[in-house]
């Protein structure tokens, strides 16, 4: 069982590398050779841009990202829909694509594990996976899951100092009341024409405000501006 002083090493970490070392050490103490922690400020943000700490093989991470394997990874779809851990092995990867994905993961030493969804108080989304090359060993023991869940909560809370540091520009952006009003409706999925009808302004005016917003956030798309505004707490996702 993990002790509180061990978990507090995550809270006390002064650098990202120190924090990563502490997390990897705790995973090892629980019997897992591999670990991955990834989180984005909100589900709307692309998973490829996640704050990521992992000792997965570099080659596997490259293949995973280049082939967009999160689209066929059942642990990702599970975490999007549930707050409960998923204990995985061959039986979880049903269908041709998931089976091929699993066989490829096994070739890199990722044979079985436990993945815990991350759903933060500020809308963060992600996952914490503990993996071994051994055959599935039934890590459904209550004491094991309790330790992993506690570690997940400490990992999320202690990671905030590093994840928030990645979005300083968003936190310093100042929007006018009209710009913020337009952005909130765009975040709700409305088009410029729909926003113009709602606010009683011309479509050209809405586009003008959105162009200013993207310039202030230093992004090239509306979706990126929405993501950054959510991460900065300016817009609350519906």
Descriptive account of the structure:
This protein has about 240 residues and is α+β, with helices and mostly antiparallel strands. Helix content is about 50%, strand content about 15%. It is built from 11 helices and 5 strands, in the order H-H-E-E-H-H-E-H-E-E-H-H-H-H-H-H. Strands 2-1-5-4-3 form a 5-stranded antiparallel beta sheet, sandwiched between helices. A hairpin with a 5-residue loop joins strand 4 (about 110-120) and strand 5 (about 125-130). Helix 10 packs across helix 11 (about 220-230). The chain is globular. The model has no long low-confidence stretch (mean pLDDT about 90).
Short description:
With 238 residues, this protein is an alpha+beta fold.
End-to-end separation in angstroms reads 39 Å
Strand content: 5-15%
How many helices? The count is 11
Strand neighbour order, sheet with most strands: 2-1-5-4-3
| Mean pLDDT across residues | 88
List the helices and strands and how they pair.
Elements: H1 4-12, H2 16-29, E1 34-40, E2 51-54, H3 58-66, H4 74-81, E3 86-88, H5 96-106, E4 112-119, E5 125-132, H6 142-163, H7 168-172, H8 177-187, H9 192-199, H10 203-217, H11 222-231
Antiparallel strand pairs: 1-2, 1-5, 3-4, 4-5
Helix pairs in contact: 1-2, 1-6, 2-6, 8-10, 8-11, 9-10, 10-11
Give the tags.
238 residues, alpha+beta, five-stranded antiparallel beta sheet, 11 helices, 5 strands
